[in-house]
Hints:
Largest sheet: 4 strands, mixed
Bound molecules: shikimate-3-phosphate
Structural class: alpha/beta
CATH architecture of the largest domain: Alpha-beta prism
Shape: globular
Distance between the termini: 23 Å
Helix content: 25-40%
Number of domains: 2
Strand content: 25-35%
Number of helices: 12
CATH class of the largest domain: Alpha Beta
Amino acid sequence: MSVATTATITPATRVQGRLTVPGDKSISHRYALLAALSEGRSELGNYAPGADCQSTLTCLRGLGVEITRSGNTVTIEGRGIRNFRSPSAPLDAGNSGTTMRMLAGILAAQPFTATMIGDESLSRRPMRRVMEPLGLMGARIDAVDGHAPLTVHGTALHPIHYTPSVPSAQVKSAVILAGLHTDGTTAVTEPAQTRDHTERALAAFGFNVTVNGLTVSIAGGQRGQGRTMPVPGDFSSAAFWMVAAASLPGSTITIEQVGLNPSRTALIEILRRFGARVDVHPESVEAGEPLGTIVVTGDRLGSLEIAPDEVPGLIDELPAISALAAHGGQVTIHGAGELRVKESDRITTLVTGFRNLGINAEEHGDGYTVRGSGAPTGGVADAGGDHRMAMAFAIAALAAQQPSRIEGSDAVVISYPDFFDTLQRLIA
Ligand code: S3P
């Protein structure tokens, strides 16, 4: 799908409507990887439509995995553990940090050498956080000063008990996936709870995984079984509509079939703290992942501080949360230095873009403050190649005095190709 490189956002005083959002990006990556590592066929429904999850499929194909895609249904013929084929060309992870880091854990255990490359943004992102634990397990990984391209020399790995220094679901997952290929029990103790989709997905494919507080352990040598399952709607994509409704009093947005995994939904309480009404209706559990309907009604604009210990549960929602205060109220975020190593430096990109839209925003070392004061002037904001920046700017620009322009709006293809069409529908 092609998306325009510039989007014009026309002012709107409220948003209204009922929708579903694309399949969850984090869950789609994991289902694809685990389906490939399982035995037999898997059929994944509502697979994420964005370029990132397509990158995971492309890399798996490069490893000899047979995959067919019909719309958002993806069929994967599992090859089982240690059965990937040595790739004949570098594996291209595109813009996707999750693909590169999680796949590193699997490649580390293969009996061949493979190189992973990424786009300019991914080639700037830190990879030592996975190279270090995989190195402790016996893998040798070559990088350029801790950055991609990564050349992974696979070998027989040994189990470890690892405590990452940053809370990261990608690091946890890379070590656990590597652990699945060892002869003993591998454990990760996290410094703070991060999303637990890998743990749930492993269980769904029939692997035994133990979770004890912040420690996840897995025994190597297990076999998984392919299965048919749907991917829930992406809560992080829903976040932009939830924030749009909360920041424009008089709005109501209903989002159906969205993932409600508690390790992802901290935004719900944040919106209530800001002054919105949020109703949540859990409806089902699919492959261990809860899903249901969320209704957000904008009521009043408040003032909000996000503390460092809240950041891991909100990491992908912080760009959206910033847009909450674009038209009034205040949002201050502390302890979010990790934002600087995302698809862009999300602190600088966000503060610069907001200011260019006429919104009062101030950067500090590991966070920022956004202070709205009525309708901003509007202007031109550059997404810096970052999908979540493009969406945050679009929501922030809604209640401006003049139409605004988002440069690099096509970055939404990473997670939400239909974002701008959906926005048009919700402001109509
Ligand atoms: C993700 C984990 C988070 C998140 C990213 C997706 C995942 O990154 O920001 O968008 O799917 O595991 P970190 O592991 O770097 O915190």
